[in-house]
Structure formats: structure tokens, C-alpha cells
Design brief:
With about 325 residues, the chain is an alpha/beta fold. It contains 13 helices and 10 strands. It folds into 2 domains: about 190 residues, D-Maltodextrin-Binding Protein, domain 2 (3-Layer(aba) Sandwich), CATH 3.40.190.10; about 100 residues, Periplasmic binding protein-like II (D-Maltodextrin-Binding Protein, domain 2). It has a 5-stranded mixed β-sheet with strand order 2-1-3-10-4, sandwiched between helices. The chain has a 5-stranded mixed β-sheet with strand order 7-6-8-5-9. The termini are far apart.
């Protein structure tokens, strides 16, 4: 009888151990990602992946956190406040050059949409038309990082126009209210917002049209995360590539997924329009037939070289490999 009780106890312990092992095998890895800014249609692909279970299928419990600009997002990654981030490449390079242990592991927006944006009725069509106007700039914002590059390229000086500063929303409001003729920002959300509020057409002078183009919004990870959790990052990138690919095919479905998660995030129509305006910047002419995240080496090399030049960094100590790895791109 005593032997039977011992056998039953052993069997129970074995079953419990099996259950614990099974639970561990199916436990998902928690991963937090801070976005570049507040939630808009531009980040809907990440929510589509969550709702459709793409991250779950890779064993990832992804937590998305609103950001307050690319600079704070990069700092949050560097200081272990979040695991990874979605932030501007040039901002990341500048922060990393000062010692932050971060690197881009995937470039989603390979073509830069940064522009000066204003109402079409202002008749500002070329860089020289900016002279004598008032320009609203958000210091530290992703777009402001290459504003100086653009000015140098087209021969503009600070004295050629009046500058007012504020956060990104303030710059949009300044154009809407007439306190500024132009704002420095992406030719996506700011342009769409100006048009929708004023009910007037807006125009963008894109910096890329004047050969000022650096890679922009990217997935950012810490060096220790890259070293210690490569499999997790590969799984994340696989799920994200699948999410973005699905959003490209059906932007409305991506926005619906976002609004299912955050019903008060904003207007469905505006978010769809924003995502549709963002998608063309995922690739350059060099990569238009390539899968998502397949950025060209030339794009990375040229982007880093431009940032290093205009940030007055030592080129010999700032090779592209310091700031980007394609090892996790599916």
C-alpha cells in the first residue's frame, strides 16, 4: 500500500513537471516598443500585426507605447526603459555618436518625406520662394534634423526668413492660423492636417527632390539586446515585415485594427489617408521591387555620410556599420 502511494505521488509530480515544462514552452516573450510619436495611421501596421496574431505566432507579446518624438524614443531604448523603438534614423545616429549603445536593425521608411509644407495659396513653389517668409520648426524633431542639410544644399541662410519654434503640433497650428507661412515636417500627417482643418489645398517642397534624402523611421535596438536576444529580434522582424506587407495591401484593414485596439485614436478616414500617404516612402527607386525592410547599402552609406558631414562628426570613427545591421531583416 505504501508503495502504491509513493508511485501515485511520483506520477503526480511528473505530471506537474510536464505541465510546467509545457507552459514554459508556450510562454510568449514580452517585448516593449516605443513609437516615434502619438498614434496615427502611419503606425497602423504594428496594430494590424497584433490583431491578426502575427506577433503571437512568433511567440511575442508585443506592447506598443506612444512616443513624444524620435529623440526621447531613442533615449528610452538606450536607457533600458523600453526594449526597442521606432524612431528616425538620423536622430538615432546623432544620439549613438554621443555614446548611446543603439543601432538600427530595420529601416522601414527608406525615402525621406521631410518637406516644407504650406497652403498652396501662398504660392511657395521653390526653395527661393521661402525667402522673406515665416517658417515654423520643431527643434529636435526628426524633420528638423535635415532642415539644415536642405538649407545648405539650396543656399538658404537663417537670415533669409523668420523662424518660429514649437512642438510638431504647434508648427501645424501656426500654418493653420496664419502665424507661419510654412512648417518643416513630413509631407504626410502635417500636410493632411493642414488641408483638412483649413479645407484648402496644401503644397510640399520635398527635400528629396533636391538630393537631400536620408533614411528615416527605423526599428532601433540596444547593443546588448542585439547580442543577447538575436532570435527574439529575428522573430519580431519577421512578424513586422508580415504586418507591413499586409498593411500595404489593405491600409483600411490596418487602420481598423488600430481603432479596434484604440477606439478614440482619431478619424478613420484621416488615418487611412495618412497610411496611404506614408506607404510610398517605404522604398526607394533602388528597392521598389524588394521585400519590405530591404534597404540598399548605398542608402545606408549615403545617409550616414550626410548625417556625419552636417553634424560635423569624425567620419573615420563613424562607419555605417556602427549604426545599422541588416542581420535581422527577413
Amino acid at each position: 500500500m505504501k508503495l502504491k502511494r509513493l508511485l501515485r505521488a511520483a506520477a503526480a509530480l511528473g505530471f506537474a513537471a510536464f505541465c510546467c515544462a509545457s507552459g514554459s514552452a508556450y510562454a510568449k516573450d514580452s517585448l516593449s516598443m516605443m513609437l516615434n510619436y502619438t498614434v496615427t495611421g502611419a503606425v497602423a501596421p504594428f496594430y494590424l500585426g497584433k490583431v491578426r496574431g502575427y506577433y503571437d505566432a512568433e511567440g511575442i507579446d508585443l506592447k506598443l507605447i506612444e512616443g513624444h518624438g524620435s529623440g526621447p524614443t531613442v533615449q528610452a531604448v538606450a536607457t533600458h526603459n523600453v526594449d526597442i523603438g521606432y524612431a528616425d534614423f538620423s536622430t538615432m545616429v546623432k544620439v549613438a555618436a554621443m555614446g548611446a549603445p543603439v543601432k538600427a536593425i530595420g529601416v522601414l521608411m527608406q525615402e525621406n518625406p521631410t518637406s516644407v509644407v504650406g497652403l498652396a495659396e501662398k504660392n511657395i513653389k521653390t526653395p527661393q520662394d521661402i525667402k522673406g517668409k515665416t517658417v515654423a520648426v520643431a527643434p529636435g524633431d526628426a524633420s528638423s534634423q535635415i532642415w539644415t542639410m536642405f538649407m545648405n544644399k539650396v543656399g538658404l541662410k537663417d537670415s533669409d526668413f523668420k523662424t518660429i519654434t514649437g512642438n510638431p503640433q504647434t508648427t501645424i497650428n501656426a500654418v493653420i492660423t496664419g502665424h507661419a507661412d510654412l512648417l518643416v515636417g513630413f509631407a504626410t500627417i502635417p500636410l493632411i492636417t493642414v488641408e483638412e482643418v483649413t479645407r484648402k489645398p496644401a503644397r510640399a517642397i520635398r527635400f528629396a527632390d533636391y538630393d537631400v534624402n536620408v533614411a528615416t523611421l527605423s526599428i532601433i535596438a540596444r547593443d546588448d539586446m542585439i547580442k543577447d536576444n538575436p532570435d527574439l529580434l529575428r522573430r519580431f522582424m519577421r512578424a513586422t515585415a508580415k504586418s507591413v506587407d499586409a498593411a500595404e495591401k489593405d491600409p483600411a484593414a490596418a487602420v481598423d485594427a488600430l481603432l479596434k485596439t484604440l477606439p478614440a485614436a482619431g478619424s478613420r478616414d484621416t488615418m487611412i489617408r495618412t497610411l496611404q500617404a506614408t506607404i510610398p516612402f517605404y522604398r526607394t527607386p533602388e528597392t521598389e521591387s524588394q521585400p519590405i525592410f530591404h534597404v540598399s547599402a548605398k542608402n545606408i552609406d549615403d545617409s550616414v555620410a550626410s548625417i556625419v558631414q552636417y553634424s560635423k562628426l569624425d567620419a573615420s570613427a563613424n562607419a555605417p556599420a556602427k549604426y545599422y545591421t541588416g542581420a535581422f531583416v527577413p
